[in-house]
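Example (one chain per record):
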Amino acid sequence: MTYSATGLPAGAIFNSSTRTFSWTPTYVQAGTYTVTFKVTDGTLSDSETITITVADVPLTITSFYDTPDPFSPNGDTRKDTTTIKGVFNHQAVWSLEIKDQAGSVIRFFTGTGISLGQVWDGKNQQGVRVNDGVYTYVLRGNDIGLSTAARSVTGRVDTELPVLSNLADSPDPFSPSQSQTTTISYTLSEQSKILLRVYNSSGTLI
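Predicted structure:
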């Protein structure tokens, strides 16, 4: 007996010795396929045609964020860049837009893959550092098939140092030996991390 197959989709294999058909479709092969299998003994033959339907797997963005946020591209080597990260559920051709608060695209990146880790140095397409403020990152993907996906997040550019004011404690004085406490208060110009150290009258950190 001789076995054969015609109309095989790209990537499909028919093993005539074991009479097995195998195929793992890619994400761009959604659709309907017709394959004909034939057997002959040299005199008589028979065939059967089957229809294979490959459903599309929609492209999705499973995660999308930037780190650090905010970042300060002021050249002091601390948080001078941010990395915009995204992950798709399968291979995609992607584009990344960075928009200012007016909605204008000021930086544009493209690539392919199941994930991205795009570094942004806080400069526009002309290489000029952008102003402080909130920017929108828009990620779009296409799997070269039937699916597209899009997602957006915001990130902040902040090169201004925080200002601390109105530092005070109350009550003052107070007596810890009598189980008294004091409350230290202050005002910050923006959300920041604070490190508070307390020294005694001799300048020793306690």
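Caption: The CA atoms of residues 36 and 200 lie 90 Å apart.
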